[in-house]
Specification:
Layout: E1 5-9, H1 16-24, E2 28-32, H2 39-43, E3 46-48, H3 55-64, E4 70-73, H4 79-89, H5 96-101, H6 105-112, E5 122-125, H7 128-138, E6 143-147, E7 158-160, H8 166-176, E8 183-187, E9 192-201, E10 204-215, E11 223-228, H9 234-251, E12 256-265, E13 268-275, H10 283-291, H11 295-303, E14 318-324, E15 329-335, E16 346-351, E17 358-359, E18 370-376, H12 379-390, E19 394-397, E20 402-404, H13 408-415
Parallel strand pairs: 1-2, 1-4, 2-3
Antiparallel strand pairs: 5-8, 6-7, 6-8, 9-10, 9-12, 10-11, 11-14, 12-13, 14-18, 15-17, 15-19, 16-18, 19-20
Helix pairs in contact: 3-4, 7-8
Length: 417
């Protein structure tokens, strides 16, 4: 293809492999990030140290440098900007209304009411008295409190089991939401939690892969592991595919990618929320390994007005996205052996906590201490490799105690205790 110029909103460390994949596919990459030291800017064909929500400066700068053929966002914070910039420049994109729908949990819930069995009861509130009245109306616990709009990462999400927990849960959601964000209160459902990576093109959807999640202990619900492929049966995956198709269409999403989060209950799948972007962190690379389809590259193609080259998954392989979790305490030193990335099946590993910092109890994604991605032919192999690596990573605390990264069995024991 002739080299297309793609504006990528977000140049963080985790975005680097996707930027490189776009370059390998023949795109000229224009990367915007307000952090002038962002790793993605260093490898971009044209780096723009501009806030991804500064639409007017971005448009002006892009036009001064020859324009672009498409815009994609790597982050939740840039979804609306990508749609707005595309509309201003006359580029292929979802509508601005669809971008608004897919970044508002309240809008999603309202639009999904028509989906019946795939939705749940909910209320949207702006104050604590409204929250208390909404809890009375919903009439049963447990309930989930979450901000209508946030930067994602389970920020402000709390499970509440009684009236006693309502004030704190409401305040958590308000504190971690965007300014003036409402709070969504929804009925909690029991089942296994999952996420799906979905391509959308010309009125069709394709589920590339589904991962099953292992979550932290209530009341906070943070991903500690995402495992591929899901153990759901083929018939259950078909039902999930139908749900995803109806869910993205209800929000008005017409092209690109969607990251769909849901719970599979005894009565079938129930929607949690959708991101009109690839899943966060390493998810695009994992989806590529698991399905054989590079969802980010296909999103770039569609943003530039082209059809995807590969729309359906080619196969189903194993992977685990393990988040490194340690006991709370103040870090003295970290043991992360050299050569882990040279080990078979380790796609990436790293620590986000540093010596001198305090490891807090796990309340949101920012409290995780690192990450590990293992890939294999099967999920079982990927999990085994992840546990082997976790046994090699340790932290020495200021009190001289030493702890290794938690293995999968430890999370599972806590979940069932």
């Amino acid at each position: 293809m002739d080299s297309k110029r793609i504006l990528i909103l977000g140049g963080g460390r985790y975005n680097v492999p996707s930027i490189q994949a776009a370059q390998e596919a023949g795109f000229f990459t224009v990367v915007a990030d307000r952090n002038a030291e962002a790793p993605g800017l260093r490898i971009a064909d044209l780096p723009l140290p501009i806030d991804l929500n500064a639409c007017d400066p971005l448009i002006q700068t892009v036009q001064e440098h020859g324009g672009v053929d498409g815009v994609v966002s790597m982050a939740e914070a840039g979804v609306r900007s990508a749609a707005h910039i595309s509309a201003r420049l006359g580029l292929a994109s979802i509508s601005e209304e669809a971008a608004t729908n897919s970044t508002s949990k309240a809008a999603m819930r309202r639009l999904w009411r028509r989906l019946g069995e795939y939705s749940i009861d909910f209320e949207v509130v702006a104050s604590l008295p409204e929250a208390e009245a909404a809890v009375e109306k919903l009439a049963s616990f447990p309930l989930i409190f979450k901000p209508d709009q946030s930067f994602g990462g389970s920020r402000g999400v709390t499970r509440v089991n009684s009236f006693h927990g309502v004030p704190q849960a409401f305040q958590n959601a308000k504190n971690d939401g965007l300014p003036s964000s409402d709070v969504v209160i929804e009925r909690c459902v029991d089942g296994t939690e999952h996420s799906a990576e979905v391509l959308i093109s010309n009125g069709r959807t394709s589920v590339l892969c589904i991962g099953q999640k292992v979550k932290s202990m209530p009341p906070y619900r943070v991903d500690v592991s995402v495992q591929y492929p899901t153990p759901l049966a083929i018939s259950q995956c078909d039902t999930v595919a139908e749900m995803c198709d109806r869910a993205v269409k209800a929000l008005g999403l017409t092209q690109g990618v969607a990251h769909v989060e849901f719970c599979y209950t005894s009565r079938g799948p129930v929607l949690f929320e959708i991101g009109a972007r690839c899943g966060g962190g390493h998810t695009p690379q994992i989806a590529h390994h698991v399905s054989g389809v590079n969802e980010f590259v296909e999103a770039c193609r569609m943003a530039c007005g082209m059809n995807p080259r590969q729309f359906s998954p080619l196969y189903s392989r194993g992977a685990e996205y393990r988040f490194l979790v340690f006991e709370p305490g103040i870090v003295d030193s970290i043991e992360l052996p050299d050569g882990l990335l040279n080990g078979a099946g380790v796609l990436d590993v790293g620590m986000t906590v540093q010596p001198g910092q305090k490891i807090a109890p796990l309340h949101n994604t920012s409290d995780r201490s690192g990450f590990l991605v293992t890939i294999a032919r099967t999920l079982e192999e990927a999990v085994r490799r992840a546990d082997e690596v976790c046994r090699q990573i340790s932290i020495r605390y200021r009190d001289s105690s030493v702890h290794h990264a938690m293995e999968l069995a430890a999370f599972q024991e806590l979940a069932h205790s």
